[in-house]
Write a structure and sequence with these properties.
This protein is an alpha+beta fold. The chain has helices spanning 12-26, 35-41, 61-74, 127-136, 154-159, 251-263, 277-284, 313-327, 393-410, 441-459, 468-473, 481-492; strands at 31-32, 52-56, 78-81, 98-102, 109-113, 118-121, 141-142, 175-181, 187-189, 223-230, 232-233, 237-246, 272-275, 302-310, 333-337, 380-385, 388-390, 413-420, 425-435. The strands form four sheets. Strands 12, 13, 14, 15, 16, 17, 18 and 19 form an eight-stranded antiparallel β-sheet that branches. The protein is globular, with a radius of gyration of 23 Å. The structure holds flavin-adenine dinucleotide (FAD). This is FAD-dependent oxidoreductase.
Length: 506
Amino acid sequence: MTNLGPIQAPLPEALTTFLAACAAAIGAGHVSVSAVDLADWSLCTFPWSGHPLAVLSPGTAEEAVACLRLAGLHGCPLHPVSRGRSWGLGSRRPPRDAVILDLSRLNRIIDIDATSGTVRVEPGVTFSQLQDELTAREIPFHVPSFGGPPSASVLANALDRGEGSGAFGDRFGQLWDLDVGLTTGERLRTGYGRFENARLAPVHGRPVGPLIEGLFSQASFGCVLSGCLGLAPTAQHGCYIAFEIGLSDKLPAFVEAFTGLIRDRVVDYHDAFFWDGAKQIASAGIAADLTQPPPPRAYEEWLATISISANHAMILDCKKAIVIQTLLPFCSSFTIDEDGEPGSRNSGLRGFSDGGNVTSCYWAKPALPDGPLNPDRDRCGFLWLCPVIPLDGVALARMAQLTQAAARQFDIFIMAGAEAATERACHGYVSFAWDRDVPGADAKAMAAHAMLMEAFTREGFHPYRPTLPATAAAAPSQGDWAAVVRRLRHALDPAGVLATGRVADL
Ligand SMILES: Cc1cc2nc3c(=O)[nH]c(=O)nc-3n(C[C@H](O)[C@H](O)[C@H](O)COP(=O)(O)OP(=O)(O)OC[C@H]3O[C@@H](n4cnc5c(N)ncnc54)[C@H](O)[C@@H]3O)c2cc1C
């Protein structure tokens, strides 16, 4: 039996031979081992031990496949990065020492089907690039907006099972017909793109037979070179309604009433967000800018933001009235934000991501920088925990309780929020923000993160999205899951070189 365990970092001679072969395949100018580049690629919002050994920047899908094949041939660990904006999840750091496969030059919007509302993109295509293209061509569809940086990769965010607002917010659920390169040198399409007449490829994602897209999500068992993404139809009218709920003991009644709105299809899941006071305060500015600190209770007050959109003003008005009437008895007050002019593309409800939320990474820094925000370069401490919470107010209140206990015990700033991801469950967003320049702050934050993750695991609130530390510390799975998935991985990446350490237990 071949050894399926993790491979070791390559010996320097093996790495040199591999890089020389890559330089012949993609051009020496696109292979970097410069100390300056490697230092830049090593930046992260938390301490981590895996290092980039070199950076390969292929310019085409064929060149990327050549690098993958050579990595398999030479047994050299390779870690794919599309845009590397995974701030708080791992930035551009590999789980273990590896050469980086930088896919940012693969930045073509290959095809837009304006009738069906689908798009085929390469991994380097960013949210702002796609939104600008859809707006310029007046296409009545959009990519659901999100709180992350607009310079992130649409495809990588979908592969990582990221989410945006609205009914099409489950990005992986809207992704199909992946073009995948393997370290064997093979290349395959997972959808109808594999047939001679590929007419169905942009409109239907589930061809007969086993569906294998899942093997490339949060796993990188292969490198995805492009994929087809379903876009959301852009509604003319929309608004946000924010409900002040109060302390976490008020969550159960509010969430129960809210769940009825989702079941009745008045509100879509991914349209409702719950925020604690810490997250609300950090959205408005950083700690250093506060003239006086808010009272401790303010950090623990919960708010729900519900977005509603419709193509007809009357439908919007009806939905608004039903939402307010249903939730009014369970909140202390509410406000309505009409969200710009009808039809404006500069709206979060119509695909515009402004990246404003990234300032929350700077909460503990002495000041915000003047130029573009880059939490890696600005030495922000930032780390997510992403637990799934049943869509039930008692469970949500428990998440709040555990989070506040950790914040108090470690005297660290933790923000908590959750988004209804289905009719039955929420995706929790718990983020830790600190200043990496303060001595001892890294160690304290990592200890608080480990403790809270353990508390969530004990509660059965397992994660839906990986961060490097959470994956490394994950509890072993029961039964034969790991053995079976290890064999699947071995079939796709026999040398075991691609993104090693990315999946817990493997
Ligand atoms: C303040 C803040 C708010 C945020 N809000 C949101 C939010 O609302 N919703 C949300 O979803 N995210 C959110 N994020 C998370 C983050 O912005 C995204 O996950 C971001 O999209 C990741 O960066 P990227 O797209 O450049 O992916 P990358 O960093 O390039 O890749 C992400 C992962 O996928 C793997 N990968 C990349 N490309 C490929 C490929 N082609 N084939 C195989 N594997 C690949 C990488 O190895 C890496 O592990 C937020 C982050 C911050 C800091």
